[in-house]
Amino acid sequence: MRDLSPTSSIFGTIPEAPPDAILGLNTQYRSDPSPNKVNLGVGAYRTADGQPYVLPVVRRVEQALADDPSTTHEYLPQDGLKEFCNLSASLILGAHSPAFADRRSVTVQALSGTGALRVGFTFVARFLSPQTAVYIPKPSWSNHKNVVVQSGLPPAKEYRYFDYGTGAVDINGMVEDLTAAPAGSIVVLHGCAHNPTGADPSHEQWERVLQVVQEGGLVPFFDNAYQGFASGSLEEDAWSVRRFVDAGIDMLVGQSYAKNMGLYGERVGALTVVSSEGGNNEAILSQLKAIIRAMYSNPPKHGAMVAAAILGHAGMFAEWEEELRKMADRIRDMRQKLRGALVKNGTPGNWDHIVNQIGMFSFTGLTAAQVELMKNKYHIYMTSNGRISMAGLTEDTVEYVADAMKDAVVSLKKGVIHNM
């Protein structure tokens, strides 16, 4: 008979997993008693007072749902709320996308952007090959690597993306690495507001990437977490995705409404599979539903209803667009003020990249040692690669952060990227 004493538990030898780099950082911040602490690691929008923000249009829809006696908590189908799926596909692909006319796109609701990636990569592993190579940018959002492996695929490979000398996209390195990728490989692309660098390809550079993808038989997987939140324009932030769809290639597209609607905790997202030719939508949908059924059965309802109400109503949609512009403007303002404070206090180096980058994050060029100094001495928290959330800055903290950055750069000059 097996000994079931506590010392011989079958779970007793399970090792402790390392803390998530970003979520662990937030835990450290919350436990810090300093009144001067600043959190530049959180990937969520904050007001000019540093507080979480619920969009007024979102609040109004939630109240209307609460007051409506016909609102229920019944299960959704595996593929989610149909209206939400249709409106999400239209938002990212464009209302008049050829993918709709040719019946070559399928959209399912997902658990925000991460869930879209997880379902999409599982679909790839099952119906392309479990040995499919996945290429992600270097650097990229840290969870990309985790999701790829957990989906049953080999560890992700990296392609060059960021030029540490200029603070911009290393387009030549990117093209060279993707040209060498085997046909059928999945290439993860950030549709806009690249995380963590804030450096996006220009339209001309996207054309070069598209050419490599077409000639090499690669399959793009666009991760779109910031549509409308990056430039303030929903149309501009969807340009890259729509250009690739118009080219008539096989691809996948993930969407999240965490950032652009502030629905962080509701886990609202979508996955769209776009085929190079129509005719197999029902089969694709059936397999996506089967994957979702085994993974989490069906998605949550409330957030999808909120998003669908806003997306489907012209007046509320316009109000949402205006909110997006305001949020994007505040982030641009913080970029200008941080750069201005660094120039004013004489911090060594060129800080133009802070205003040239886009979206929530900026890749500062600070080293891990400099980041650690700022945390220990000034209680300023950011990821060890020097990425900061511009939304975490306020009028009251921007000079404090700039002065701490100057101290870190001057005190620990080794490894500083002076020409960024």
TrEMBL record:
<protein>
    <recommendedName>
        <fullName>Aspartate aminotransferase</fullName>
        <ecNumber>2.6.1.1</ecNumber>
    </recommendedName>
</protein>
<dbReference type="Pfam" id="PF00155">
    <property type="entry name" value="Aminotran_1_2"/>
</dbReference>
<dbReference type="InterPro" id="IPR015424">
    <property type="entry name" value="PyrdxlP-dep_Trfase"/>
</dbReference>
<feature type="domain" description="Aminotransferase class I/classII large">
    <location>
        <begin position="36"/>
        <end position="404"/>
    </location>
</feature>
<keyword id="KW-0808">Transferase</keyword>
<dbReference type="InterPro" id="IPR015421">
    <property type="entry name" value="PyrdxlP-dep_Trfase_major"/>
</dbReference>
<keyword id="KW-0032">Aminotransferase</keyword>
<dbReference type="InterPro" id="IPR004838">
    <property type="entry name" value="NHTrfase_class1_PyrdxlP-BS"/>
</dbReference>
<dbReference type="InterPro" id="IPR000796">
    <property type="entry name" value="Asp_trans"/>
</dbReference>
<dbReference type="GO" id="GO:0006520">
    <property type="term" value="P:amino acid metabolic process"/>
</dbReference>
<dbReference type="GO" id="GO:0030170">
    <property type="term" value="F:pyridoxal phosphate binding"/>
</dbReference>
<dbReference type="GO" id="GO:0004069">
    <property type="term" value="F:L-aspartate:2-oxoglutarate aminotransferase activity"/>
</dbReference>
<comment type="subunit">
    <text>Homodimer.</text>
</comment>
<dbReference type="InterPro" id="IPR004839">
    <property type="entry name" value="Aminotransferase_I/II_large"/>
</dbReference>
<comment type="similarity">
    <text>Belongs to the class-I pyridoxal-phosphate-dependent aminotransferase family.</text>
</comment>
<dbReference type="InterPro" id="IPR015422">
    <property type="entry name" value="PyrdxlP-dep_Trfase_small"/>
</dbReference>
<keyword id="KW-0663">Pyridoxal phosphate</keyword>
